[in-house]
Design a protein that fits this description.
The chain is of the alpha/beta class and 226 residues long. It is 36% helix and 27% strand. It is globular. It binds adenosine-5'-diphosphate (2 copies). Residues 4-226 form the ABC transporter domain.
Length: 226
């Protein structure tokens, strides 16, 4: 089964800048995939389109067979996205943020509270469940974003630079958390600047540069070329 299929995806911003010039990408169910590329290559634009924050100009996107244009709500149900910026209400508490997020998906309150407890515990945030989230450290806020993206139990999780600015110890524990999710069958795509992160976690990679995919291969093949 294909988790993500992207065909001829283009994005021209309002100022005329062509950020994506016809991206093709295939990620299989169960994969752990890295989207690599220099700053400005188009990684965040691609993720923005998947999370429906950015309107695409052309092309098609499917997540587990749900087409972004024809079935956006079906697509959203099987997709969790962790953007780079902290975009939760910093005055709300982690537990409440997760329960409210579950509400958007129509998840019953009792189930939502159970899942909030599960993910806050697994991500080491249970102690902080009732603290205003602006009080959390950067690494804690990042983990809160991951918990929020998981609350509806998506089959595909996409993370934009999940460990940027995170110290090495926390990075390692986030790696083992993500590896555990992948072993449970969740397909994961991440963007990263750290080649080591991609090397540790990912089986397949796509390299994007100037809005085009310039390489689509396995991690093993890539390392043999270096
Ligand atoms: P769209 O074409 O998707 O409607 P716009 O061109 O209207 O997008 O821009 C959306 C937002 O991104 C605007 O608020 C704009 O100020 C901001 N923006 C403009 N240029 C850049 C850039 N180079 N990098 C990041 N954000 C930008
Ligand atoms: P990456 O995530 O790979 O660093 P982005 O997708 O953020 O790349 O940006 C790709 C290109 O599109 C960059 O040159 C960026 O300046 C430009 N860009 C991003 N957002 C906007 C916008 N809203 N308006 C105009 N240009 C943008």
């Amino acid at each position: 089964t294909s988790a993500l299929t992207i065909r001829q995806l283009t994005k021209t911003y309002g100022n005329g800048f062509e950020a994506l010039k016809g991206i093709d990408l295939d990620v299989a169910e169960g994969d752990f995939f890295a989207l690599l590329g220099p700053n400005g290559a188009g990684k965040s634009t691609t993720i923005g389109i998947l999370s429906t924050l950015v309107n695409k100009t052309g092309g098609t996107v499917e997540v587990f067979g749900h087409d972004l244009d024809r079935d956006p709500s079906g697509l959203k149900r099987c997709l969790g996205v962790v953007p780079q910026e902290f975009n939760f209400n910093q005055f709300e508490k982690p537990f409440d943020i997760l329960v409210a997020q579950a509400g958007y998906y129509g998840i019953p309150a009792g189930v939502a509270r159970g899942r909030a407890e599960k993910y806050l515990t697994e991500l080491g945030l249970w102690d902080k469940r009732n603290v205003a989230s602006r009080m959390l450290s950067g690494g804690m806020k990042r983990r809160l974003m991951i918990a929020r993206a998981l609350i509806h139990q998506p089959r595909l999780l996409i993370l934009d630079e999940p460990t940027a600015g995170v110290d090495i110890e926390l990075r390692r524990s986030m790696w083992s958390f993500l590896t555990g999710l992948n072993q449970q069958g969740i397909t994961i795509i991440l963007t990263t600047h750290y080649l080591e992160e991609a090397e540790q976690l990912c089986r397949n990679i796509g390299i994007i540069d100037h809005g085009r995919i310039v390489e689509h291969t396995s991690m093993r093949e890539l390392l043999m070329q270096l």
